[in-house]
Design goal:
By secondary structure, the protein is mainly alpha-helical. Helix content is about 55%, strand content about 5%. The strands form 2 sheets. It has a two-stranded parallel sheet with strand order 1-4. Strands 2-3 form a two-stranded antiparallel sheet. The mean pLDDT is about 90.
């Protein structure tokens, strides 16, 4: 198999293939970004297994996190499969399953409450309700578009994403808040979390607005981003139900292994459980 070189047309065809596979826009953007970085590394040379392994080693030498490297490798391997170059695929880095997460990265319920209060004090009712909606339903930011006037009135939203359809229930207290909000904002149909131009709020807009609450809420900025609200929902639900299969369905995960990442406890909680074992005589 000689003369295998990457060109722009191949990358564009790969992007089209990902769209046909109904990958999300964020996933496609990420895959194409990773592929372009690899192409820049190859710099017009023939793509060989040796070059791919060298690229993997380069990432390791630059102290990328193992998960980040595996993610980049997955993008490149996907491209190779599309091009019929499966012999060029490289193995991901083996990771020991993480049993607890760094406390400085996970949002606590108390910190979540302070963020909600800070949004109220700033008079940002839209952000206040976005935060509560994500945290009380466990939906992704990209799924906020399904929180519509019609869904609020029904008390449930039908979410269609990544080729899967699931029902997301809106708890009664949130439903009342959202009904009051759409009445005040005179929103009669469609998505309710929108910009002044009528477009759905983007991840970057929500992230930026959440960051503006950190100082007033006394919360570490590293903990404050929309996806951490989904993690808090998952940990809270699992703490009550202890049913990881049901949680995976609620979150829209295809694999329970993905759900496991969401429910790992902090190091302090893990340490306390070990202390409670009372095995030292």
């Amino acid at each position: 198999m000689k003369g295998r070189k990457l060109n722009q047309n191949q990358i564009e065809e790969f992007a089209s293939y990902l769209k046909r596979e109904e990958k999300s826009e964020n996933t496609i953007e990420k895959y194409i970004r990773d592929v372009k970085v690899f192409r820049a590394y190859v710099n017009g040379a023939e793509v060989t297994k040796e070059i791919v392994v060298a690229y993997k080693n380069k990432l390791l030498s630059e102290n990328y996190a193992a998960r980040s490297i595996n993610s980049m490798i997955a993008s490149i391997n996907s491209l190779f499969l599309f091009l019929g170059w499966s012999d060029l695929k490289v193995k991901s880095i083996k990771l020991q399953r993480q049993i607890y997460c760094p406390e400085e990265k996970e949002l606590t319920k108390e910190e979540y409450i302070r963020l909600v209060h800070a949004a109220k004090q700033k008079g940002n009712e839209r952000l206040n309700l976005i935060i509560q909606t994500i945290c009380s339903t466990g939906i992704r930011v990209s799924e906020l578009q399904y929180i519509t006037v019609e869904a609020i009135r029904r008390g449930k939203a039908v979410v269609s994403l990544k080729g899967k359809i699931r029902t997301v229930f809106i708890v009664s207290d949130l439903q009342k808040k959202l009904l009051r909000y759409i009445t005040e904002q005179k929103i009669t149909s469609g998505a309710i979390f929108i910009t002044r131009s009528g477009k759905p709020m983007s991840r970057s807009n929500i992230w930026r607005e959440m960051k503006s609450l950190c100082e007033q809420a006394r919360v570490n900025t590293q903990k404050v981003f929309p996806h951490n609200l989904r993690h808090l929902f998952a940990r809270t639900f699992y703490g009550i139900e202890k049913d990881i299969a049901k949680l995976a369905d609620i979150l829209g995960h295809s694999s329970i292994n993905t759900t496991r990442i969401y429910i790992i406890t902090t190091g302090d909680e893990h340490r306390q459980r070990m202390e409670n074992m009372r095995l030292i005589i």
